[in-house]
Write a structure and sequence with these properties.
Helix content: 25-40%
Distance between the termini: 8 Å
Radius of gyration: 17 Å
Strand order of the largest sheet: 1-2
Mean pLDDT: 86
Number of strands: 4
CATH architecture of the largest domain: Orthogonal Bundle
Number of domains: 2
Number of helices: 4
Largest sheet: 2 strands, antiparallel
Structural class: alpha+beta
Low-confidence stretches: none
Bound molecules: zinc ion, manganese (II) ion
Strand content: 5-15%
CATH topology of the largest domain: Arc Repressor Mutant, subunit A
Length: about 140
């Protein structure tokens, strides 16, 4: 059974979600905290962190994790790809690639000079599937 159905969205969490969905910058928790504080002056960074984790667990947002970099958050949950600057960590969306589309064109890469790419599938291995119920 999904926890998302049982969990009430608090007014705070709703505002955090709204602020994340209002930007396309893939903010870190601290960056989102600065945005959220304009509407919730008394909110703490810890509260923003906790609510982002809950929203992520419930599938309401995406969490972008890269080795050696702070996690960033994305209010767009539909499947899409990103291009990331290895220097400043900035992340941009790559427009949707269909099964019939060829390689990504330079014009789709937000002006980045591309140095390489990685593709990572994440999921549960067969052994872990027997111990963890499906999330949704
Ligand atoms: Zn950069
Ligand atoms: Mn994105």
């Amino acid at each position: 059974m999904s926890n998302a159905k049982l969990r009430r969205n608090t007014p705070q969490r709703k505002i955090i979600l709204e602020e994340l969905r209002a930007v396309t910058t893939h903010p870190t928790a601290a960056e989102l905290y600065d945005l959220v504080r304009r509407r919730l002056p008394r909110v703490s960074l810890g509260t923003v962190y906790r609510n982002l984790e809950v929203l992520h667990q419930d599938g309401m947002i995406r969490k972008l994790e890269f080795a050696g970099a702070e996690a960033r958050f994305d209010g767009t949950t539909t499947e899409h790809y990103h291009v990331r600057c290895r220097q400043c960590g900035r992340i941009e969306d790559i427009p949707e690639l269909g099964p019939d589309s060829g390689p990504v064109q330079p014009a789709q890469l937000a002006g980045f000079r591309i140095e390489g790419h990685r593709l990572e599938y994440v999921g549960l291995c067969p052994a872990c599937q027997t111990t963890e119920p499906a999330l949704h």
